[in-house]
Specification:
- By secondary structure, the protein is of the alpha+beta class.
- It contains ten helices and nine strands.
- It is 39% helix and 12% strand.
- Strand 3 (105-107) and strand 4 (110-116) form a beta hairpin.
- The longest helix has 24 residues, at 177-200.
Length: 345
């Protein structure tokens, strides 16, 4: 751990929490423009003045103006003075811009732009920025690069699935999401296919013959998730969610997929591919107590001789040194191994 005298950890919970506390004064300041009644806003428009909408998420915020560019620039200068004088903050020149809604702008990773709708008339669309797709594809290429061939196929597919699932869930409420998802699906499919080809020295027809299942790639235990499985979602109405900490209301939330066990690399490269093979060889039966009907989630593939007794750790992963144990038996054996005993019979 490294202690620093200033700043907060990137991605930590402290950063947005402190931003919400400190920038609450900015929220209160903007109420002079946003807390107006509908009649007051109409009177301002009839008098030739602009109205403003203010949205903030942690330290990222945007102000919308339905007036002239001069009024937008005047408010920018006003906020610059307030932030510098009251909160001792300085706006970033690179991130603080005045732009027309027709030209679009990026906010919270989304691209917002006013365009002509499908049925005519102007409408504001929430789109996926092009650089967001490029970054996601770059992540997949990093996961499937040539230096990772020692990893198991199962964990590699889970790793790519984690990227695809998280990215698509974030952007599935945007316009034309399916079109972008189709491009991600294509590039993810071929990145995974080329990784398999390089790992096993196979041609693309051989990879397709061995691993293709319909429009995706799969093994006996897992399949590459398709981005187009995430359908475009549309917010059809506005609603207010009750506070889960102050009410007894039951909230229905989206069911999220369980996090995959892969976090960048395997502690035992290739071991995940051995698990279903050993489990099938042992007839899904615990080698110690004889319990049957074990699955990948209720069984452990264990080393008969501990890894520390091998000069090369990879040699401990031979099929002759692996057997299937139920979780309780594996727990007992692990404890006995730590005490210097050998429960293997």
């Amino acid at each position: 751990m490294r202690y620093t005298s200033q700043g907060t950890p990137q991605g930590g919970i402290a950063s947005p929490l402190l931003a919400n506390i400190y920038l609450h004064e900015l929220d209160r300041y903007m109420q002079r423009y946003t807390a107006l009644s509908l009649q007051e806003k109409r009177r301002r428009r009839h008098a030739g003045h602009a109205n403003f909408a203010y949205i903030r998420y942690a330290d990222d915020w945007v102000v919308l103006c339905n007036g002239s560019r001069a009024e937008a620039e005047a408010l920018k200068e006003e906020l610059t003075t307030f932030l510098h004088g009251t909160l001792k903050l300085t706006l970033s020149p690179d991130k603080t811009k005045i732009t027309h809604l027709n030209d679009g702008f990026k906010f919270l990773g989304f691209w917002l732009q006013r365009k002509i709708g499908y049925h005519g008339g102007m409408t504001t669309k929430v789109l996926i920025p092009r650089e967001a797709l490029r970054r996601c594809v770059a992540q997949i290429k990093t996961v499937t690069q040539a230096s990772t061939h020692q990893h198991s196929v199962a964990t590699k597919i889970l790793a790519v699935n984690r990227i695809i699932s998280g990215w698509c869930r974030y952007y599935q409420h945007t316009a034309r999401a399916t079109t972008t998802f189709r491009s991600l699906e294509y590039q993810g499919f071929w990145a995974m296919a080329h990784w398999l080809g390089r790992k096993y020295q196979l041609t693309m027809p051989q990879v397709m013959q061995r691993y293709r299942r319909g429009n995706t790639l799969a093994t006996g235990s897992c399949r590459l998730r398709q981005a187009t499985e995430f359908k475009t979602q549309v917010y059809k109405k506005r609603f207010i969610k009750p506070n889960p900490y102050t009410t007894q209301a039951v909230l229905t939330r989206e069911d999220l997929a369980p996090p995959p066990p892969w976090h960048g690399q395997e502690s035992r490269p290739g071991f995940e591919d051995l698990r279903p093979l050993i489990l099938e060889r042992d007839a899904y039966t615990c080698g110690k107590c004889g319990q049957t009907g074990l699955t990948l989630s209720t069984a452990e593939i264990d080393h008969k001789r501990p890894v520390r007794r091998f000069k090369l750790a990879v040699n401990a992963n031979g099929p002759d040194n692996l057997w299937t144990l139920c979780i309780p038996c594996h727990r007992v054996k692990t404890q006995a191994d730590r005490q210097g005993e050998s429960p293997v019979r």
